[in-house]
Automatic annotation (TrEMBL):
The keyword Membrane is assigned to this record: yes
Keyword hit for Nuclease: no
Principal cellular location given in the protein's record: membrane
Family in the record: Belongs to the outer membrane factor (OMF) (TC 1.B.17) family.
Topology versus the membrane: Lipid-anchor
Organism (species): Gluconobacter vitians
Protein name, entry field: Efflux transporter outer membrane subunit
Record keywords: Lipoprotein, Membrane, Palmitate, Transmembrane, Transmembrane beta strand
Lineage start: Bacteria, Pseudomonadati, Pseudomonadota, Alphaproteobacteria, Acetobacterales
Pfam families reported for this sequence: OEP
Compartments in which it is found: Cell membrane
Origin: domain of life: Bacteria
Length: 484
């Protein structure tokens, strides 16, 4: 009958264990705009196609693609993120282990002496018995928390959601890393282009100085012309060290992203290359797709899931819990009888834990968890709104950057024509050298502005890709145990 009672209790506990307290998580939603706002541009158009998860390939720059391929393997922040995923996965397994049967074995030996003045003095000892004896014990203890109202199940659910949040955090790190790499690379090529423009103008200024000196020697030019030409050459040369410093800093910034020591990439990146051209068109998806793609939104959703599960944990704490426990082993005063049948001992039965008075701890904990859940909802909504804003701002900035670049290009063409005309007129003696100096300064300024504008347009496009949330896939490490 005793075993039947235990069996009935076990069966009833298993039936009750299907009851999980607290609210179930439902994926949050927000009414998204039907489409992104459009800005007219003359070059690279945006359209509502699927977002390119390898957008750096659209620049058709082999060096950039090579750097990104190494980034996924070498970046230390990504490696730290991978370890955090392993930590979160282990915590989830620890939480899940609480719902499984537990078993522990212990064995002991002790030589004991009982006090003649202690509690045993109240009993009459068996004739011939000694107060000194050996005691051998061997016990196998088992227990199983039936988790009647889902405390453990909700804890596992919360830890699994935390693992998902950690995975999303690593994806956010990957997106930031590839965006920073592409931005630094675009800026590097822009700086190198500005150096090439400046060196070209320095050579031109040096040629002009030689021309003025020859004309002065022939009595055609004045001391003022010579001084102006020399000052212009010195002024241009003074700008070169600053650009070289920026180039070195950008190479080191890229090296840091690849976990390389300073100057390790100089031989690879120092040779100048053209600034990557813009892609002909940029797919930007739909606003409603953004919440399923951006890592920060997915991370906020996972944290909301964890907070909801924690409410279930706090709710289940108000209800009784049953743990089935059993002990089986042997106990003997003699090593020879340690494993004999009469030396056996065992106990089995349930333990019922009922919260009666906790001093307000359970109520306060539940209030705290509910407040944390409401906070997570608001945080998620704010993250989604900010994501939509970032994309819209980035699209506007990209369109305006292209318009600025087009106007800057027109300015460069006009300044180049003006300089060529002024230089030709000076050689013919039709004007003084001041006009040559002024038009060359304007040409250099417009050339630099054009290169800077190109760099700004490229980095603005990178910012748009980052806001769209695509590109973290390059750093994924497939695992059958991962949760997406």
């Amino acid at each position: 009958m005793k075993f039947q009672s235990v069996s009935a209790l076990l069966t009833g506990g298993l039936v009750l264990s299907a009851c999980t307290m607290g609210p179930n998580f439902h994926r949050p939603t927000m009414d998204a705009p039907a489409s992104w706002g459009s800005e007219p541009s003359s070059e690279s158009q945006t359209y509502a196609g699927a977002v390119d998860t390898q957008w750096w390939q659209s620049f058709h720059d082999p060096e950039l693609s090579s750097l990104v391929s190494r980034l996924g393997r070498q970046n230390l922040d990504l490696q730290i993120g991978a370890e955090r995923i392993s930590e979160a996965r282990s915590q989830m397994k620890v939480a899940a282990s609480a719902g499984l049967p537990q078993a522990n074995w212990s064995g002991s030996y002790a030589y004991r002496q009982l006090s003649k003045q202690g509690i045993f003095s109240l009993a009459e000892p068996r004739p011939g018995s000694s107060m000194n004896f050996n005691l051998y014990e061997n016990v196998l203890s088992t227990s199983w928390d039936l988790d009647l109202f889902g405390t453990i199940r909700r804890s596992v659910e919360a830890q699994r959601a935390n693992e998902t949040a950690t995975l999303a955090a690593r994806r956010a790190t990957a997106l930031a890393a590839v965006s920073d790499l592409a931005t630094s690379y675009m800026q590097l090529r822009g700086i190198q282009q500005q150096q090439a423009i400046l060196r070209s103008n320095i050579d031109l200024a040096r040629t002009s100085l030689k021309l003025v000196q020859d004309r002065f020697a022939n009595g055609v030019a004045t001391n003022l012309d010579v001084s102006q030409a020399a000052a212009q050459l010195a002024s241009m040369s003074a700008d070169l060290p600053g650009l070289e410093n920026s180039e070195a800093a950008l190479i080191n910034a890229i090296g840091l992203l690849l976990a390389e020591p300073p100057r390790a990439l100089e031989a690879e990146l120092r040779p100048a290359s053209i600034q990557p051209p813009l892609p002909a068109s940029v797919p930007v998806g739909l606003p409603s797709d953004l919440t399923r793609r951006r890592p920060d939104v997915l991370q906020g959703e996972a944290r909301l899931h964890a907070a909801t599960a924690e409410v279930g944990v706090a709710t289940a704490a108000f209800y009784p819990d049953i743990t089935l426990a059993g002990n089986m082993g042997t106990e003997s005063f003699s090593a020879a009888d340690f494993f004999s049948l009469p030396a056996k001992q065992f106990s089995v039965g349930p333990t019922l834990n009922v919260p009666v008075f906790e001093g307000g701890r359970l109520i306060s904990t539940l209030q705290f968890r509910k407040a944390a859940q409401r906070e997570a909802v608001l945080t998620w909504r704010n993250t989604v709104l900010n994501a939509w804003r970032e994309v819209d701002d980035a699209m506007t900035a990209y369109a305006k950057a292209q318009s600025t670049h087009s106007l800057t290009e027109q300015s460069f063409f006009q300044n180049r024509a003006a300089f060529n005309a002024a230089r030709e007129r000076y050689q013919q003696g039709a004007t003084d050298y001041l006009n040559v100096v002024a038009t060359q300064a304007a040409l250099l300024s417009s050339q630099s502005a054009l290169s800077i504008s190109q760099t700004r347009t490229e980095t603005t496009l990178v910012a748009l890709y980052r806001a769209l949330g695509g590109g973290w896939q390059y750093a994924e490490t497939p695992s059958p145990a991962s949760h997406s």
